[in-house]
Automatic annotation (TrEMBL):
<dbReference type="InterPro" id="IPR023346">
    <property type="entry name" value="Lysozyme-like_dom_sf"/>
</dbReference>
<keyword id="KW-0732">Signal</keyword>
<dbReference type="Pfam" id="PF13406">
    <property type="entry name" value="SLT_2"/>
</dbReference>
<feature type="signal peptide">
    <location>
        <begin position="1"/>
        <end position="21"/>
    </location>
</feature>
<dbReference type="InterPro" id="IPR043426">
    <property type="entry name" value="MltB-like"/>
</dbReference>
<feature type="domain" description="Transglycosylase SLT">
    <location>
        <begin position="28"/>
        <end position="235"/>
    </location>
</feature>
<dbReference type="InterPro" id="IPR031304">
    <property type="entry name" value="SLT_2"/>
</dbReference>
<protein>
    <submittedName>
        <fullName>Lytic murein transglycosylase</fullName>
    </submittedName>
</protein>
<dbReference type="InterPro" id="IPR011970">
    <property type="entry name" value="MltB_2"/>
</dbReference>
Amino acid sequence: MLIFRSLIVAASLAFASPALAARCGGDFNTFIASFSAEAQSAGVSGGVVSQSLSGVTLDPAVLSFDRRQRYTFNKSFEQYVSTRVGPGRINGGRAMLQRHAALLSRIEQQYGVPRQILIAIWGLETDFGKGDMGKLPVIRTLATLAHDCRRTELFQTELMAALKIVERGDLTLRDLIGAFAGEIGQTQFLPSSYIKYGVDFDGDGRVDLRHSTADVLASTANLLHTNGFKMGASYEEGSPNFEAMREWNRAVIYRKTIGYFADQLMGR
């Protein structure tokens, strides 16, 4: 996603665990050693902890990006949507609706989230999986943000979730790459959301939000469904469905853009 995902990061505060108590700041290696012990106490195997955290280093670029990032939109809805939803992306989304029609029907039946909403989110986040999913090692990114004392509890929770993604076999460390807040995959899930909402919809035994279109779209639908999205109801601003999308992104402008894009896909 082109804006920093603090707007969804804030939602994951609800999952922060008070058991995570590695001391932030100070020596980075001491912090990692403390966190490694906590991860093993939480059930992550010693092998995964060692493989993931041994030799990990602080990433100054992540801290620099985090500190200069603005957390509010400085454009009107009309200005913002004009930069995100144009004819090319609308045509691309309509092609995706046709290409994945059978898959989207199955997802609608199981989760009750309309296909145009899923395609709109997919298109806005990574241009239907063809765009930038991030290029940073997620473990290093999250370890850096967890060591920083500004939101250490939040990012210790996300770092623990990232280790569990590896532990479950969903992604290898080589594939565990993402954006500047640790967002992963074609619809940019934070690790805690990956663990909570991820669905193995293609039946291969793992949740792969980088490569599996079925898993990506079903997991996105599961997130919305779990938070109250209802099939057939309005998703305009002020509706219960619009509020359900808040778990996806807290910004009103972004949720309005999802709805606008979805309507354009359906010719409305």
